[in-house]
Fold this protein.
Amino acid sequence: MIKRVFVVIGAVCLFVRCGEQKKGMAQSNTDTLPNIIWLVAEDQSPEWFPMYGDSTITLPNLEMLSTDGVVFENAYSPVPVCAPARSSIITGMYPTSLGTHNMRTHAPWKEGENEPSIGIPSYSPIVPEGVKMFTEYLRAKGYYCANGPKEDYNFEKTTAAWDESSNGRHWRKRAEGQPFFTVFNFSVCHESQIWKRGKDSLFVAPDKVSVPPYFPDNDSIRHDLAVNYSNLKRLDDQLGTVLKALKEDGLYDNSIIFFYGDHGGPFPRHKRALYETGTKVPMVIKFTGNQGAEERDDRLISFIDLAPTVLSMASIEPPKVMQGVAQFGKFEAAKKPVYTFHSADRFDEVYDRLRAVRGGRYKYIRSFDTTKPHALPVSYREQMPMMRNLRLLFEEGKLSPIQASWLQSPKPSEELYDLDKDPFELENLAGSAALQDTLQFYRKLLNEWMAETTDLGGVPEQELLISWLPNGEQPLLPALEMEEKEKGISLFCKKQDATIIWKQPKDAVWTIFQEPLPKNISFVAKAERIGYRDSEVLIYDGE
């Protein structure tokens, strides 16, 4: 007997993993598949880590991982803020192509409201055809996929993406012998921790920190820098717990372990900025058997490469819709990227639009609204003592020209920096007569990228909402269709790129439908896709 019912899915779902593999789950060759672990630090730039030459604080666990792994010199986030960046990580796509370029679109914890002051509701963009959360492919291959505690993909996640996504996630919940992909996110070094931990113990004395030239050298700046170093020690301690557990379980040597930051540092002119301080991230990869230990790699890696790279490591050919390339693994791309591209649009309640391209030596930044300063008045950031100090000193005229430039308006329409000679991006060379050919080259390169990737940043957000949300609602996927054959029950959805998931009534975790289901079991099934409401739930009571 078949029934269809509507089910309201809550904004936050906690899954409990049952200790059995499903009968429809692909299980071939799982013994040879590598375990893959991501250790993700929020809001951090490479400049504060020992593996990048900073000796201000020791981070023994990260230093050990770096000794066993490969340190990447040029890893980048497409967007210098978390939710858009995470949308690129989980899909292998640019946020400007997905419609996830604004910070933030999907915010379920705000109960339907993003920023009431601009009238934008919480919503999930309807992503291009064929785009999925890449962990769906891992789960279909037989991987146990666990994430936590942060999601924040700028769209509502698909249930098919994770076996478990919660603070309690762990590889130890998988079935015996099952390969796993597990994400551990560390928020102790997040921007907010600069003011929330401002009175906590410091593990670095403020007078021992180095102050970059774009900041004034005073007690407020030094204190916040010291807080961040102290938070890195807390990060290292937490991360060390995971590494210790891997070793206890005999998994460390033969696992692939990524450490990276989700975008640049927590400070002004870092987070939300298209300078290197906002887009460049620390990244270490420890390969199985510690291959390449202690090596350094200067290739350009963008977050759009992470999804295809992990799939390639798991012997899964990356879908053609992905804009990134596999940097390693069975399907490693022969041609590696020579440029990275970056965007900045709405940040919370404040709109702006900038685009950037970074080559081996030069960085080009274009601003589409020069009336606003780089230092947008984002209320969240204004809580930071350093930000308040910069505002005050700017108003009093006490900042040097270099320190004041980030807060001034109008800002330049174009910026060009020689990163070899000017790593802090302090001297804008866009007006240099000697570099006009370089300027025109990068200008053309950016224009071509925006056209080829269908950059949605030029479309007002309200217009995007009208096109995506008819009647103000996410569209509903069509109901599943079912066909009974001798081999079992096949399920279909008229929206061909939707994912069909099913489970038996006693199960807590949904399984991705891949092959006909037995006729003698009861099950429920539905279709899901990013940007759509789930289809009606189909209920099959068995024969």
User: Anything to note?
Assistant: The CA atoms of residues 252 and 525 lie 37 Å apart. Confidence is low (pLDDT under 50) at residues 1-28. The two ends are 8 Å apart (CA to CA). The longest helix spans residues 219-248.
